[in-house]
Structures are given as C-alpha cells and as structure tokens.
Write a structure and sequence with these properties.
Pfam families: LRR_6, NLRC4_HD2. By secondary structure, the protein is mostly helical. It has 14 helices and 6 strands. Helix 5 packs across helix 8.
Length: 305
C-alpha cells in the first residue's frame, strides 16, 4: 500500500519545492565555481522564457543559495559547505543582464533577484535620482539599467500610481518605452509635447488592452494617421478601459478620423466618452463618422472636440 500522497497545486509552492530540490539534492555535486555557473545558467533560462514561468523559481533558488539560508537547511543538505558560492559573482552577472536586456518587464524580475541576494545598490542609486528629479524634473538622463531600476522602484512603491507625466522624467520615445510598465499601472498618462511619433503608438495600443488607463493625453505629438491607426487597434480591444483621449494637434487627417470611428464602432463595450481632436487636418467625411457615433444612443462617446 502506498503512503500518503501530497499534491501542491499552487504555483508558488511548486516553484519553491523545485528550487529547494535543486538547492539540496544537488548541492553536494557542485563546488564553488560550478554552483555559480548553475545560478548563472538559471538566470539565462529565466530570461529566455517568453511567459516568465521560471521567474519565481529563480528568485527562490537565489534566496536558498545564500549562506545564511544554507545553514537553516543544513538538515536537508548532505554537504552544505559545498553549495556555497561567491555571491558577488552572481550579483554582478545579474547586473550585466539588466544592462543588456532591452525588456523592462524582464529586468523587473532581475531586480527581485537582486533583492533575494540582499543587494540594493541599483535601487539606492535610482532613489537618489528620484530625489534629484523632485528638485530638477526632466534634467537627468538615466542609463538603461537605471531606467529599469526606476520602474522597479515606482511599481513597488507604497504610493498609488494615479498620474504619470512624461515631463517629470524625459520627454522622448526612449523614456516612454522604458517606463511603459508604469504607464500601464497608472490611471492617467500625460504624454503631451513628448517628442513622440507614431512608433510609440504600437506600445500604447498594447498597453490599452491590459492597463488601468482611464485618461490618455497625447496632444502636440507627431503621431500622424499611421500612429492613430495603431492606437485604434488598442481602442478596439474589449478590455480597454479608456474614457478620455486627447489627440489635439497630432497631424491627423481624414484617414485617422475614419480609423478612430471604425475602432469605436467595432467595440460596443468601449468606455470612451470624451475625444479631443482639435487643431488636426480633418475632412468632412471623418468628422461626419465621429459625429454620427456621438449621436448613436448605444455609444458612450458624449463629448467630441
């Protein structure tokens, strides 16, 4: 007769047990250099994962690799001393990966990994930047790793992310791309006069389908019809929560107006109630389509400028 069988359904428990198994059952097979190699390999595999399914496993494994935790696990380890490694080597390797990685989302998990290794140097550096920014907004330029650190700090802050203003950092497409996770977590994003082009609209369209954004101001950017077409793809998504969209003076013509009207018409669950298109190059047909939508009793669009 088989003994008791336990089933651990929650993903966090599964990830922890997997990390615990690797940290204990295999610890006697690794010397100092190979244990470090194992951790670096785990970092690489987590970064290669498209859905992030190794992120928690990696955090647990790095935490268990610390000497203080190895001591606590001494009853499970065959030779605890052999699983120790030079922590600083792993810390520096993770920092290199943060600098190399263009994805802010993937870098965020690496900052959690640094926390597991009790290293907060990049976060402390970006905290100093935040303090300087409060006195001189938009003056400093950050390196890619510190952009990621800034996102990590803001997303893990106790303060609620209500309004995001690009001018508090640096009005550019690069800055917007780096801080996109913060934009997604905010309810209002002010991106006017941001030196943005249509290229930014692809990321914004994706953000509209999975964010808290209720108000978005893109006025006085050279988005053009191509940018508005991309943005319209986000407005079509039934998960889009946007209620107010400001597109004043964005070089939009009749074609862009038509794309906006088509997007809103194709999404009966659209929440958009206010649309500002002042100072654009519209024609009669585009304005007519949007005006008809405004008059439609089934449409939420009530204010059209």
């Amino acid at each position: 007769m088989l003994g008791e069988v336990f089933s651990f359904v929650h993903l966090n428990v599964q990830e922890f047990l997997a990390a615990l198994y690797l940290a204990t059952d295999l610890s006697d097979l690794f010397n100092q250099s190979t244990m470090s190699d194992l951790l670096k390999s785990a970092v690489d595999k987590a970064l290669q994962s498209e859905n992030g399914h190794l992120d928690l496993f990696l955090r647990f494994l790095l935490g268990l690799s610390l000497e203080s935790n190895q001591t606590l696990l001494s009853g499970l380890l065959t030779v605890a001393e052999r699983s120790s490694h030079h922590k600083e080597d792993t810390v520096q390797y993770i920092k290199e990966k943060i600098r190399e990685n263009p994805s802010t989302e993937k870098s965020i998990n690496l900052f959690h990994c640094l926390n597991e290794l009790n290293n907060h140097s990049l976060v402390q550096e970006v905290q100093e930047y935040v303090n300087r920014r409060n006195h001189h907004p938009g003056k400093d330029r950050l390196s890619p790793d510190l952009w990621s650190a800034l996102v990590f700090v803001m997303l893990n802050s106790d303060e609620k992310l209500d309004n995001f203003d690009l001018h508090e950092y640096h009005p550019s497409e690069e800055c917007l791309k780096r801080l996109m996770p913060v934009v997604k977590a905010s309810t209002k994003a002010v991106l006017c006069f941001g030196n943005l082009t249509g290229e930014s609209c692809a990321n914004l369209a994706s953000a509209l389908s999975c964010s808290s954004l209720i108000e978005l101001d893109l006025s006085y950017n050279k988005l053009g019809d191509s940018g508005v077409q991309l943005l319209s793809n986000g407005l079509k998504n039934p998960n889009c929560q946007l209620k107010i969209l400001q597109l004043c003076n964005c070089s939009i013509t009749d074609e862009g107006y038509t794309d906006l009207a088509s997007a809103l018409k194709s999404n009966p669950s659209s929440h958009l109630r206010e649309l500002n298109l002042d100072y654009n190059k519209s024609g009669e047909s585009g304005v007519k389509l949007l005006s008809e939508l405004q008059e439609d009793p089934h449409s939420n669009l009530k204010k059209l400028l």
